[in-house]
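Bumping my old thread because nobody answered last time. Still need a sequence for this structure:
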């Protein structure tokens, strides 16, 4: 108990000293401020000294901060610095060319699909119409479409229309054969029993389409005229009155 009382006495003495020191500091600060206020030049010089340093920003920054240029991809690090930009440019050119080729391919496919649908609808309408008169109308419509493409210089597409006309005639006249849509033209030719001249004409049209679409050999006007004659022969030999 005595020790605790002594400890409390020490704490009270320490607290008193700290309070006295604080009061003394406040008095000194107040006196310094009063002295500085009485001397305006001293205040101005003190302010100039503070503003002269670089710790206080005195102006608003102008513009946006410059960003460092983007670093090239890691797979371009092995290329010299001067060639990296050229390689990236060539890469973008290749991407653009591939995109253009893909768009052209899809456009041709869509046009071909629409054309096949028109041909199929025409063939079905002819078969459901007035017998031979309906068949003749379908053949004339098909030839008109093929001739229109040929006059526009699109001989490869015109040959394809002739082939579709042949397939339409086969399906219309050989319904018992149950031709599957997945069969190729050569498979259809092998499965059906056709007169010799009709089979030869059909084979010539199939070969011309294969060379034009898959063999990379563009068709011309002479080739189209020859295959058009083959189609007329095929339609006549297979039973059409065209």
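Sorry it took so long. Here it is:
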């Amino acid at each position: 108990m005595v020790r605790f009382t002594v400890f409390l006495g020490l704490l009270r003495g320490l607290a008193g000293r700290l309070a006295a020191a604080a009061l003394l500091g406040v008095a000194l600060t107040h006196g310094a401020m009063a002295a500085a206020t009485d001397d305006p030049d001293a205040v101005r010089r003190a302010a100039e000294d503070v503003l002269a340093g670089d710790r206080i920003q005195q102006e608003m920054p102008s513009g946006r901060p410059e960003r460092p240029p983007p670093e090239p991809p890691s797979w371009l690090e092995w290329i010299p610095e001067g060639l990296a930009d050229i390689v990236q440019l060539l890469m973008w050119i290749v991407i653009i060319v591939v995109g253009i080729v893909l768009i052209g391919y899809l456009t041709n496919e869509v046009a071909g699909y629409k054309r096949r649908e028109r041909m199929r609808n025409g063939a079905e309408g002819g078969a459901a119409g007035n017998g031979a008169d309906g068949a003749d109308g379908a053949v004339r419509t098909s030839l008109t479409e093929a001739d229109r493409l040929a006059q526009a210089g699109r001989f490869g597409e015109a040959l394809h229309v002739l082939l579709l006309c042949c397939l339409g005639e086969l399906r219309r006249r050989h319904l018992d054969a149950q031709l599957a849509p997945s069969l190729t033209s050569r498979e259809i030719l092998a499965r059906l029993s056709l007169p010799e001249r009709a089979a030869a004409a059909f084979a010539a049209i199939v070969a011309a389409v294969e060379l034009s679409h898959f063999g990379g050999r563009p068709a011309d006007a002479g080739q189209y005229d020859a295959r058009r004659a083959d189609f007329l022969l095929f339609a006549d030999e297979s039973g059409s009155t065209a």
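Residues 123-137 have pLDDT under 50 and may be disordered. Let me know if any region looks off to you.
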